[in-house]
Specification:
- The two termini are 25 Å apart.
- This protein is mostly helical and 82 residues long.
- It has one domain.
- The chain contains four helices and no strands.
- Helix content is 33%, strand content 0%.
Length: 82
């Protein structure tokens, strides 16, 4: 089991003004209701996260697996000897 103590780190990030401003991108960005320009425009995002607000009220933590070799076999990893 792994333990990732995120609470203190996230709190520290939120208290950093530049990072807090980045978190508000969803609320402050220009958008057009006629087309999807970002994940924030999709019904799935709205259902999962709710409406964005002027005051930061929630943070969504996403895990991107683009770089994870999902089908790589353990024996193929560098340094592993069968």
């Amino acid at each position: 089991m792994y333990h990732f103590p995120l609470k203190d780190r996230v709190e520290s990030l939120i208290n950093t003004r530049a990072y807090a401003d980045l978190l508000q991108h969803e609320y402050t960005r220009r958008s057009n209701p006629d087309w999807y320009a970002d994940v924030y425009d999709t019904p799935a995002w709205l259902e999962a996260m709710g409406e964005s607000t002027e005051k930061l009220s929630r943070i969504g933590l996403l895990f991107c697996i683009d770089g994870v070799p999902a089908f790589k076999r353990w024996a193929d990893w560098p340094g592993h000897h069968a």
